[in-house]
């Protein structure tokens, strides 16, 4: 996929990988995000600027597309802040397959400016703790991005809960900014969860804060009821 945001060129490559195993009927297809590259020779735009506004409008327009022909060219805004976005999926990846690829590419472009914090203390059974904490965060993500999770006509894009792991209760939350729709927020969560292994494996608490999404977990209640 090649996109052009005004004077900023962005190259994002997404591929469908085939996992070859003995049974052809069990062939597993996965959409794997590979790489993106930004050309900043024209400078950077400012947070809250008109250019950023039109980028977000263009990305939302992409997310509302049906991806049936695997290609779109979108313009938003007025000069000198006009934004152009183009995507094209591989010839065998239209419809839902194209949608998942583009969501992954957009998340890689927009949500990489994140940082993390973790508790310096380790848990006893790291393998069990990592597995169950990841499962809790995934469960909360599904709840946060569920289309029925709304207040009025707005998506909440937030969920919190707790889970007993061994002898400890783990408390966690996930949240995305409300300018994202459910499909894009799911991709955003997927992106920041990749940071879990770097920041939080085996730790008694941790959090990742991204531009648009974040998660946190602790061994104590840290949220208001």
UniProtKB/TrEMBL annotation:
<dbReference type="InterPro" id="IPR002902">
    <property type="entry name" value="GNK2"/>
</dbReference>
<keyword id="KW-0677">Repeat</keyword>
<feature type="signal peptide">
    <location>
        <begin position="1"/>
        <end position="26"/>
    </location>
</feature>
<feature type="domain" description="Gnk2-homologous">
    <location>
        <begin position="111"/>
        <end position="222"/>
    </location>
</feature>
<keyword id="KW-0964">Secreted</keyword>
<comment type="similarity">
    <text>Belongs to the cysteine-rich repeat secretory protein family.</text>
</comment>
<keyword id="KW-0732">Signal</keyword>
<dbReference type="InterPro" id="IPR038408">
    <property type="entry name" value="GNK2_sf"/>
</dbReference>
<dbReference type="Pfam" id="PF01657">
    <property type="entry name" value="Stress-antifung"/>
</dbReference>
<dbReference type="GO" id="GO:0005576">
    <property type="term" value="C:extracellular region"/>
</dbReference>
<protein>
    <recommendedName>
        <fullName>Gnk2-homologous domain-containing protein</fullName>
    </recommendedName>
</protein>
<dbReference type="InterPro" id="IPR050581">
    <property type="entry name" value="CRR_secretory_protein"/>
</dbReference>
């Amino acid at each position: 996929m090649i996109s052009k945001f005004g004077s900023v060129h962005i190259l994002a490559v997404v591929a469908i990988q085939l996992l070859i195993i003995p049974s052809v009927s069990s062939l597993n297809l996965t959409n794997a995000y590979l790489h993106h590259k930004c050309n900043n020779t024209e400078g950077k735009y400012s947070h809250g600027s008109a250019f950023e506004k039109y980028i977000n409008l263009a990305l939302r327009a992409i997310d509302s597309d049906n991806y049936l022909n695997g290609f779109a060219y979108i313009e938003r805004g007025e000069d000198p802040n006009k934004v152009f976005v183009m995507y094209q999926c591989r010839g065998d990846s239209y419809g839902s397959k194209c949608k998942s690829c583009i969501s992954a590419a957009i998340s890689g472009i927009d949500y990489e400016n994140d940082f993390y914090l973790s508790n310096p203390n380790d848990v006893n059974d790291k393998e069990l703790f990592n597995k169950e904490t990841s499962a809790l965060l995934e469960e909360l993500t599904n709840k946060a991005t569920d289309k029925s999770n709304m207040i009025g006509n707005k998506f909440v894009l937030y969920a919190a809960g707790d889970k007993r792991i061994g002898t400890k209760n783990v408390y966690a939350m996930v949240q995305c900014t409300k300018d994202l729709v459910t499909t894009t927020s799911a991709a955003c969560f997927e992106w920041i969860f990749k940071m879990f292994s770097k920041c939080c494996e085996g730790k008694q608490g941790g959090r990742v804060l991204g531009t648009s999404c974040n998660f946190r977990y602790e061994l104590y209640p840290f949220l208001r009821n």
